[in-house]
Prior knowledge:
This protein is mainly α. It has 3 helices and no strands.
Amino acid sequence: MSGQDTFQAILGIxxxxxxxxxxxxxxxxxxxxxxxVALDMLTAIAVGFAALTALSTxxxxxxxxxxxxxxxxxxxxxxxxxxxxxxxxxx
Length: 91
């Protein structure tokens, strides 16, 4: 096992741990905003996994997947921010 393989394995473990912790926060809450931030983090972790997979396999298609997921995540975050702003002004 080369040094690069070891490094990729360590990064995979770190991303898996972050995935579990973010999933826990998404399930437990306590507020809707906490759950949305956890979902935002989960998509960021998915981008990290796609980048790590692209690095491991040498296939650039995984970077296209990472770009698509990050763009969808950005639009969802912007929409949620607009929703929260309208909710705050309405109360």
